[in-house]
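All the exercises in this workshop are built on plain-text protein records. Sequence and backbone structure share a record, each on its own labelled line. The question running through the whole workshop is how a given chain folds. The record below serves as our worked example for the rest of this section.
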Amino acid sequence: MAFPSYLVPNLWTLTLLTLLAASVQSNFIVFDDDPLQPVTQDETVSVGGTVTLTCRVAASDNSSLQWSNTAQQTLYFGEKRALRDNRIQLYRSTGTELSITIGNVQLSDEGEYTCSIFTMPVRTARATVTVLGVPGKPQISGYEDTVQEGGKVTLTCTSSGSKPPAKLRWYRNQEELTGRPDVVETNPDEATYTVISELTLTVGRSDDNTLIGCAVDHPSLSSGEKWTEQPIRVLFTPDVTIQPQNDLPREGEKFIIQCIGNGNPKPTSYVWQRKDGELPLLAKVDGSFLLFEMLNKSDNGVYLCQADNGIGKMQGEYTLLVQDLTDDSNNLFPTSFYLPSSSPTSDSPSPSLSPDSFPTLMSTTSGSSASGSLPASSPPTIFSFSVPYPSDLTFIPSFSSSSLSTSSLSPSPPPVKVLSTSLSNSLFPDLSMSPEPHPPSSDSSPSSSSSSFSPPPASVTPPSVAPPSSDSLTPSSVTIRLNGVYSFTGK
């Protein structure tokens, strides 16, 4: 039968496709059309591990399955052990399956294992066992001693026993570094490899106490399973800072500053200097400390400290600015009162009294007056105190306008003795005032006196001063003998 000429190329194409499909099918171990054909699979195991070899058939005709090793020695025939090797054990045996295990696998166990079924004809299948050589823990060499800042260090990492060859990776504090390409050497005694890698680093002070790590990357290991670290010590000059004992140095107080040098090694020598001058006489140097026994404004300045650790010298500075002591002059209340002794003219100090003892004294206004009398036996009392006045007030003694005015009052007038006062009743309502202008003497007797003020003697002439402005303080202190009280005129 002859085919038309236009069909001939198509027939050739169909034939080639059929042959190609048959060729590809022959490379697979699965034969769907033969239920008695054994089926196996390849296995990979690490040295020292256990591998399981399984052989199956789709159907059983009561024929036995058998496993043989790479030397074609029978390991198991059905349920019967044929080779006396305790590492090989029966795992499962049925009419359609034969599975065995090989424990403590060695590199010599690598190769092809054969499963056979004794039918007519005998059918076989092969399984390849690949044994991985487990690499040893990496070792780092090349580091012998400390390295000075700016120097170089070369480290070598070595790992042996891997199969296939392992890959080495470098790390610095968990950050991966790039070393030189690995060098692979074959071990003469067994089919394993030794891998060598080098890393060269230029170190700085930040690398001091840094951990340089080398890790092995291999199929037989989990990530990071085998890892070695090498700490690096770097020598460097100190960083110098000066720290004060407190942040507010006050005049008259003790003060300490410390020179702190962070270097490797630690500084062993400290030199203190004062910029543009000598150290104060009361300043004492004690190693890294500079002590001021009592601060003074003359101690102000810039102080320098130089620290030396044998690798180098570095200098730090501190600016000292001495502060004034706390100023209490803004307190409007008297700080002390002076009471007389047995003598009526005595000005000896007495225990201080609280401002609360004289509440009406602070509220006295211009033109205020009171009258009264003390017993004749009670000598007049002299109170002497200083009252800092606010900037918007001016206090002056209440004198006669003909003898003294606010425009001629000196900042600090002398004490003026007044024979009587008009404030006694308002300040001490429960006391009676004596009309005597002076304490009684041996040749005088008590007599009454008016409550009006007497002007100072003509011989007492306060020095003239310029009229104070509205925000000036005039006077800063007043001392007046008024039978135990004071009279102020607020302005």
Notes: The helical segments are 8-25, 424-427. Confidence is low (pLDDT under 50) at residues 1-9, 11-31, 327-427, 431-491. The two ends are 147 Å apart (CA to CA).
